[in-house]
Amino acid sequence: MMQHRFRALALLAVPASLFVAWNQAGLTTAAAWDGVIARASGGGHYDVGAVPPTVPAKFAFTALDKGNGEFHGRFHHKADVGGLNVEFHADVTCLAVDSANGRAWIGGVITENRSEHPGFQTAIHQPGQDIWFRVLDDGEGKGETDRTTFVGFRGGAGISTSAEYCAVKPWPADNARTWPVSGNVQVQP
């Protein structure tokens, strides 16, 4: 009997946590969802790097494109680099979607930098600065794995702003510099 109560509580906790995240992102009102033409969301764990030692990381995001130049959502990425926390929170300022290939490019502005690692405490890593990443939704039940990148900053790949990143939509061949996600990514037109 006690085991069934814990399962019921767990089932309630997941939707409740999603509601809190969406509410914090301002996504629970009808106005936020009204007119949405594209969206991407997801989260999970991933390891940055092709060969050991890899860097364990996790992320979560929701991004909406209202089709009128207005974007809503938030994201965060967190990694452990050599025992030091690297963590960014951001508000979404752009979203580009290639629904035929399940790809999305998400850009934003840093709202919080909780990083301890000195390599992520420079001027380009501070609140108010642009930040971006990209994801791959490889579908449901195909045996394939969704993917994400870690975050990028001004000057990376010659890109200066999140808006430029979403406009250029870089995607190297063979999903280079994207990492398999243990979790889920959804990209929808």
Secondary-structure element order, N to C: HHEEEEEEEEHEE
Query: Given the structure, what is the number of helices?
Result: 3
Mean pLDDT: 86
β-strand amount: 35-45%
Radius of gyration: 17 Å
Spans with pLDDT under 50 lasting ≥5 residues?
1-26
- Total discrete domains: 2
What's the β-strand tally?
A: 10
Query: For the terminal residues, how far apart are their CA atoms?
Result: 44 Å
Question: In which range does the helix fraction lie?
Answer: 10-25%
Biggest β-sheet description = 10 strands, antiparallel
How does the helix and strand content classify structurally?
Answer: alpha+beta
- The shape, in one word, is globular
Description:
By secondary structure, this protein is α+β, with helices and mostly antiparallel strands. It folds into two domains: 1-29; 35-188, no CATH class. It is 18% helix and 42% strand. It is built from three helices and ten strands. Strands 1, 2, 3, 4, 5, 6, 7, 8, 9 and 10 form a ten-stranded antiparallel beta sheet that branches. A hairpin with a 6-residue loop joins strand 1 (38-48) and strand 2. It is globular, with a radius of gyration of 17 Å. Mean pLDDT is 86; it is low at 1-26.
Which terms summarize this structure?
single chain; 10 strands; 189 residues; alpha+beta; globular; 2 domains; disordered N terminus
Topology:
Blueprint: H1 2-24, H2 30-33, E1 38-48, E2 55-65, E3 71-81, E4 84-98, E5 103-113, E6 130-136, E7 147-148, E8 152-153, H3 162-168, E9 179-180, E10 182-188
Antiparallel strand pairs: 1-2, 1-10, 2-3, 3-4, 4-5, 5-6, 6-7, 6-8, 7-9
